[in-house]
Amino acid sequence: MSQALSEDLDQRVLVCLRDGRLFLGYLRSYDQYSNLVLEDAVERVVVRNEAFADVPCGLRVIRGENVVLFGRVADESGELRMRHRLRQVSEEEIRRMQEAAAADQAAVRRRDKLEWPVFDDGAF
Amino acid sequence: MFFAALFQTLVGQVVTVELKNDLCIRGTLLSVDPYLNVRLADVVVTEPEAFPALLALRHSCTVRGSCVRYVHLPPDQVDVQLLQDATRQVASAVKAARVRPVGE
């Protein structure tokens, strides 16, 4: 990767993964495949533009193919901008909210399915 | 290889990178490597509502080349003619160097 990437070493970075998950941690190592090592990592769980929680997960080695983007997090200004939109809640709270959001989505999917036109078999 | 070189010439320009997860990031191009990993400065996420957590990013970020769908470039900064000429030059060089397969 680019030369300037070494600037991020030992800094607190935010990593965005392909499945939408976010990890924060101190970047201790990386390579040309963007495999990353994060120390003191937390998973930042965000639910529906309203709340987030940081779930500690220790040391993380992230395989490069899963990485979408990463960058240093701002100490204060960026954090404030984010907190302006999201409030921080506990891990239990965010899991409850996650389940509620998933249930809502499932309900929407079910409704969409029902709205598909139902054809009479004889027509084909 | 042309494209890495092309992006090299655009360092310092403001570009918008559209990712495969529909995230759009606008920023100043800092560097590009042969994998087309892109490093941007002064990043602004065009849809902060969809990705509020990315507001925590400080000025620079690195996007993995494999996740990029489009890079929106300033059209007046791209020398399309040069790119086409270089491509044709290499293509004809490859053609000239090609060895005829046995039996033809």
TrEMBL record, chain A:
Keywords (A to Z) from UniProt: Cytoplasm, mRNA processing, Ribonucleoprotein, RNA-binding
Cellular component, GO annotation: Lsm1-7-Pat1 complex; P-body; ribonucleoprotein complex
Signal peptide span: none
Origin: domain of life: Eukaryota
PROSITE patterns: SM
Compartments in which it is found: Cytoplasm; Cytoplasm, P-body
GO molecular function terms attached to this record: mRNA binding
Ranges of residues in domain Sm: 1-76
A GO BP annotation: mRNA processing
Pfam families: LSM
SUPFAM superfamilies: Sm-like ribonucleoproteins
Gene3D superfamilies: 2.30.30.100
Alphabetical list of InterPro entries matching this protein: Lsm1 (IPR034104), LSM_dom_sf (IPR010920), PTHR15588 (IPR044642), Sm (IPR047575), Sm_dom_euk/arc (IPR001163)
Statement: the UniProt record of this protein carries the keyword Manganese: no
PANTHER family recorded: LSM1, U6 SNRNA-ASSOCIATED SM-LIKE PROTEIN LSM1
Protein's job: Probably involved with other LSm subunits in the general process of degradation of mRNAs.
Sequence similarity: Belongs to the snRNP Sm proteins family.
Oligomeric and partner information: LSm subunits form a heteromer with a donut shape.
Name this protein carries in UniProt: U6 snRNA-associated Sm-like protein LSm1
Automatic annotation (TrEMBL), chain B:
InterPro entries: LSM_dom_sf, Sm_dom_euk/arc, U6_snRNA_Lsm2
Domain of life, per lineage: Eukaryota
One cellular-component annotation, GO: precatalytic spliceosome
Xref: Pfam families: LSM
Species lineage: Eukaryota, Rhodophyta, Bangiophyceae, Cyanidiales, Cyanidiaceae
Name the UniProt record assigns to this protein: Sm domain-containing protein
UniProt signal peptide: 1-16
Family, per entry: Belongs to the snRNP Sm proteins family.
Localization terms from the record: Nucleus
Keyword set, alphabetical order: mRNA processing, mRNA splicing, Nucleus, Ribonucleoprotein, RNA-binding, Signal, Spliceosome
GO terms of biological process kind: mRNA splicing, via spliceosome
Gene Ontology MF annotations: RNA binding
Domain Sm: 5-73
Keyword Transcription: no
Matching SUPFAM superfamilies: Sm-like ribonucleoproteins
